[in-house]
Amino acid sequence: MDYIEGFVAAVPTKNKAAYIKHAEEAAELFKKYGAKRLIECWGNDVPDGKLTSFPKAVKCKDDETVVFSWAVWPSKAVRDAGMDKMMADDAMQNMENSMPFDGKRLIYGGFQMVVDK
């Protein structure tokens, strides 16, 4: 089964267009290094929780929107090798310097798929 890498970030709402452009550029890099797909989702029903929530996880401010995204990789091995190459790519270095959100509050993780119906 495929391997999934998920991301959650808080993006200033005013930066939506810049974020979409950034995500489109990132998608090309992900695919260049082996990802099958990159899916980006702009939050529109992401409630604050009492104990935990997406907004709490990324310390979302009132003028920010939670973004949820994931990359689909053929395997963890392809993801690991692809991410190493991608992080060394000058294009990625340039993208990191112009991110339209606070990358310090980005959370991510890798997940082995167990059900896909």
Tell me about this structure.
- The chain has 117 residues and is an alpha+beta fold.
- The chain has one domain (3-112): Alpha-Beta Plaits (2-Layer Sandwich).
- The protein contains 4 helices and 4 strands, in the order βαβαβααβ.
- The chain has a 4-stranded antiparallel beta sheet with strand order 2-3-1-4.
- The radius of gyration is 15 Å and the shape is globular.
- The chain starts with a strand and ends in a 5-residue tail after the last strand.
Q: Secondary-structure element sequence?
A: EHEHEHHE
General form: globular
Q: Percent of residues in helical segments? A: 25-40%
- N-end to C-end Cα span: 11 Å
The CATH architecture would be 2-Layer Sandwich
Q: What does the radius of gyration come to?
A: 15 Å
How many β-strand stretches?
4
Helix tally equals 4
Strand residue content: 25-35%
The overall average pLDDT, rounded, is 95
Q: How is the biggest beta sheet arranged? A: 4 strands, antiparallel
Q: How many distinct domains?
A: 1
Low-confidence stretches: none
CATH class: Alpha Beta
Strand order of the largest sheet: 2-3-1-4
The CATH topology corresponds to: Alpha-Beta Plaits
Structural class: alpha+beta
Quick gist of this model?
With 117 residues, the chain is of the alpha+beta class. The protein has helices at 16-32, 54-57, 76-88, 90-97, and strands spanning 3-12, 37-42, 64-73, 107-112.
